[in-house]
Design a protein that fits this description.
This protein is an alpha/beta fold. The protein contains six helices and six strands; from the N terminus they run βαβαβαβααβαβ. A six-stranded parallel β-sheet has the order 3-2-4-5-1-6, sandwiched between helices. Helix 2 links the parallel strand 2 and strand 3. The chain is globular. The mean pLDDT is about 90.
């Protein structure tokens, strides 16, 4: 990275739609300037339209998914495989960040991984503590813990006011998936 750049920690959270979309919009904006972005998607393992789009922007944007096929639905006791995938995913994100190949690192759905106890807050804070000063980190997902909110420089809460899901509309191709 040539010019002086100060990176910050951003959090996109809340129960409204748009957290991942906002992070990917930031990635798209950054790619427009030739910046490289790494997106680690926790819990996700299914095909989304953004994977196809990002494939066309390689190597500027790289997405890796750490979840099983489909989005896991965890209740009280997460399975060992899901915990293992999340921990290995966080290590991949750390490796990407420390490689200095990327200016922006996105931990997509990491707050949900914390909520379901696939990762610990300490593990995420340890990750953030290793962030080089010139790397931007974005953490997304519902249920952002207070400790992560306090550690962030920018916090945006997506708040649902009205959603067609409540009328039984399922995720639509090209819009939600």
């Amino acid at each position: 990275m040539t010019e002086k750049f100060k990176g910050y920690v951003q959090v996109y959270t809340g129960c409204g739609k748009g957290k991942t979309t906002a992070a990917l919009g930031l990635a798209l904006r950054a790619a427009g300037y030739g910046w490289r972005v790494y997106v680690g998607q926790f819990l996700k393992g299914q095909n989304y339209g953004e994977l196809v789009s990002v494939g066309k922007l390689a190597p500027l944007i790289k997405i890796e998914q750490f979840g099983r096929k489909g989005f896991i639905h965890v209740t009280d006791n997460p399975e060992d495989e899901d915990i293992d995938r999340a921990k290995k995913g966080l290590q991949k994100c750390l490796k990407a960040m420390l490689s200095r190949k990327y200016r922006i690192i996105v931990l997509d759905e990491v707050h949900v991984a914390l909520h379901f106890r696939l990762l610990t807050e300490k593990e995420v804070h340890d990750f953030l503590a290793q962030r080089p000063e010139d790397i931007e980190v974005v953490l997304t997902g519902r249920y952002a813990p207070l400790s992560v909110i306090r550690a962030a420089d920018l916090v945006t809460e997506m708040k649902e006011k009205k959603h067609y899901y409540s009328k039984g509309v399922r995720a639509r191709l090209g819009i939600e998936k």
